[in-house]
Amino acid sequence: xxxxxIHGGIDILRLPVNQEEHTFPPWYxxxxxxxxxxxxxxxxxxxxxxxxxxxxxxxxxxxxxxLPHMPDMVFPNNVLTLxxxxxxxxxxxxxxxxxxxxxxxxxxxxxxxxxxxxxxxxSSEYLEEKIKPFDWTFTTDYMGTMTGFVVEETIDKIxxxxxxxxxxxxxxxxxxxxxxxxxxxxxxxxxxxxxxxPSSFFVLLRYFLRVDNVMLRINDTRLFYEFGQDFxxxxxxxxxxxxxxLHFSSIIGTACTFYRT
Length: 261
Fold this sequence. Notes:
By secondary structure, the protein is mainly β. It is built from five helices and 15 strands.
């Protein structure tokens, strides 16, 4: 651990960035993992300038994201990178995941919302006018940041039976990109997991939402690659259900994309 000094003469303890690299030809994998995003600018009392190319992470996130506030915990250094033959790259990071959060009003209320409004009827109209509407569930359809790939639609699907086969796990890691407890009314979390086997690797990027006594939502992105192939498959699924309908499995939409390397 190292101690760094920021504005105002305040000493903060910054955890070092943990990282690990592996090569599984033709793929190079790397992850970095560290502390949550600071709650204020770490370089200036007036925040970094708009044209500051060396701005701190807090200012970069605030400048990039058009949101009234960010999730309780954002992990800007939690990044998973997969590189194919040094030319095509897939990356999973918190900033790009939060770019996909809507900044408009959503038609979803907490189970206690109506009772709360009634108890504050005199001020509720004022609050609705003053508070900028945005998706407070931080729902994202982020599927990863990809460069250097040729994208094609396909009817092929990921063979789940191959994933069920017993194989040695050569590498596994789980990274949280962001998490929010919705003011103790549920949880919203976006995470990415990877496991590498001798025959293939599998990545699961998941956004999970639970609004207590209201609903559940899961947006999943799955990537599957078999060694020796010149393509990988990506599937996206979005599912949600109200609490009273949890015995149903409602798939809103699915899509599968073919990536030629």
